[in-house]
């Protein structure tokens, strides 16, 4: 990392590749000879069209997105989709939700505004420290979709196998695992995520949606801005898109391609996560909170068992340049978010720091 930068373990907004930030800084006053910043640029120019079209193509290449899926760059963050999904997909007004944490629960509660949302599985009984068995769920006969939050940012769990939806479209919030490993897009009806963890500035939400799910037949009263079809027909330019944010996303896609794509990212992320989990598994002071088989590669929550010691650790870590290690305000303890842009070295020196802290405070 460049001098003055910290190791930022924030769950989001989160660390981005340094070279992307540097490039954006270089282009801030004069993008590509236009004499202006992308922030100042009309989205109806050929320069901007090239930016958004290239971003979409690079994302398609990275995720191997088939032609029968549309890619949308929208605004309103991931949370806007909690409503947009039922408004567009709830034809029978029934959907099944798998509750693996607060984000899934929020989406579930929002869906109840629009129809019948069923919680068909939950890991609330053990404070969301595992992913429930989803091989044979009581999927509703007339469910319009089955909903998951694929990586649970707060609790640090991840679906390693997708649920058996019994033929219903799978809808997944991938906000905190976006582009962290290869995905088979064909297994989903709709994939979406806020970009502020692995991809870019908060506010932008990317939606990848199968064509047959895009219809004019939305729930009565659905605002125009909340209709997928409007955004599909206008190629994400129905209104002014979050133009600068999309430009940064595009740079991160280029960076990912240069790094070797999602296969390489998976190797990189597994390496980092293993360093941290291996340490936690042998430590007498620090303990991971998630069952081994469901551990996230992106968010790693851990505790010492003593609130006092947790607070001391967070404080001393911050002073040493490791910031945002405090666990979510509803959970306590610590959480290290180690997204794509976190270098292996960042995790290695965090573990060295934890070792030292353990020895000193044993
Ligand atoms: N879904 C998940 C998995 C998240 O981690 C977050 C937030 O950080 C959200 C949804 C909400 O995203 P936003 O703040 O962009 O609405």
UniProtKB/TrEMBL annotation:
It catalyses: O-phospho-L-serine + 2-oxoglutarate = 3-phosphooxypyruvate + L-glutamate; 4-(phosphooxy)-L-threonine + 2-oxoglutarate = (R)-3-hydroxy-2-oxo-4-phosphooxybutanoate + L-glutamate. Residues 6-350 form the Aminotransferase class V domain. Pathway: Amino-acid biosynthesis; L-serine biosynthesis; L-serine from 3-phospho-D-glycerate: step 2/3. It is an enzyme of class 2 (transferase). L-glutamate binds at residue 44. It is found in: Cytoplasm. Its main location: cytoplasm. GO terms for molecular function: O-phospho-L-serine:2-oxoglutarate aminotransferase activity; pyridoxal phosphate binding. One of its GO terms (cellular component) is cytoplasm. Binds 1 pyridoxal phosphate per subunit. Its cofactor is pyridoxal 5'-phosphate. It comes from the Bacteria. Keywords: Amino-acid biosynthesis, Aminotransferase, Cytoplasm, Pyridoxal phosphate, Serine biosynthesis, Transferase. Pyridoxal 5'-phosphate binds at residues 78-79, 103, 153, 173, 196, 239-240. The keyword Ribonucleoprotein does not apply. The keyword Cytoplasm applies. Gene3D superfamilies: Aspartate Aminotransferase, domain 1, Type I PLP-dependent aspartate aminotransferase-like (Major domain). Its EC number is 2.6.1.52. The modification N6-(pyridoxal phosphate)lysine is found at residue 197. GO terms for biological process: L-serine biosynthetic process. Catalyzes the reversible conversion of 3-phosphohydroxypyruvate to phosphoserine and of 3-hydroxy-2-oxo-4-phosphonooxybutanoate to phosphohydroxythreonine. Belongs to the class-V pyridoxal-phosphate-dependent aminotransferase family. SerC subfamily. This is Phosphoserine aminotransferase. The lineage of its organism: Bacteria, Bacillati, Bacillota, Clostridia, Lachnospirales.
């Amino acid at each position: 990392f460049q001098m003055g930068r910290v190791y930022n373990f924030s769950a989001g907004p989160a660390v981005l590749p340094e070279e992307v930030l540097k490039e954006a800084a270089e282009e801030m006053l004069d993008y590509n000879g236009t004499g202006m910043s992308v922030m100042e640029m009309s989205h109806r120019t050929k320069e901007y069209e090239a930016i958004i079209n290239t971003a979409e193509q690079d994302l398609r290449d990275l995720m191997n997105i088939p032609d029968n899926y549309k890619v949308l760059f929208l605004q309103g963050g991931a949370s806007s989709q909690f409503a947009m999904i039922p408004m567009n997909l709830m034809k029978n007004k029934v959907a099944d939700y798998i509750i693996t944490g607060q984000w899934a629960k929020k989406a579930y509660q929002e869906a109840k505004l629009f129809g019948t949302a069923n919680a068909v599985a939950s890991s609330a009984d053990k404070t969301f420290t595992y992913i429930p068995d989803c091989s044979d769920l009581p999927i509703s006969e007339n469910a319009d979709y089955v909903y998951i939050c694929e990586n649970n940012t707060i609790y640090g769990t991840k679906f390693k196998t997708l649920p058996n939806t019994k033929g219903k479209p799978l809808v997944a919030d991938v906000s905190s695992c976006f582009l962290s490993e290869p995905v088979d897009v064909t297994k989903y009806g709709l994939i979406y995520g806020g970009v502020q963890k692995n991809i870019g500035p908060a506010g932008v939400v990317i939606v990848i949606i199968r064509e047959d799910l895009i219809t004019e037949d939305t729930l009565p009263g659905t605002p125009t801005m909340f209709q997928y079809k409007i955004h599909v027909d206008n190629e994400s330019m129905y209104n002014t898109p979050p133009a600068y944010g999309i430009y940064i996303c595009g740079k991160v896609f280029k960076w990912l391609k240069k790094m070797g794509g999602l296969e390489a990212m998976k190797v990189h992320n597994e390496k980092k996560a293993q360093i941290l989990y291996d340490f936690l598994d042998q430590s007498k002071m620090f303990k991971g909170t998630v069952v081994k088989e469901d551990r996230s590669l992106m968010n790693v929550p851990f505790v010492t068992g003593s609130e006092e010691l947790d607070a001391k650790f967070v404080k001393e870590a911050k002073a040493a340049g490791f910031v945002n290690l405090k666990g979510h305000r509803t959970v306590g303890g610590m959480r290290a978010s180690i997204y794509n842009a976190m270098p292996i070295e960042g995790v290695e020196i965090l573990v060295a720091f934890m070792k030292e802290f353990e020895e000193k405070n044993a």
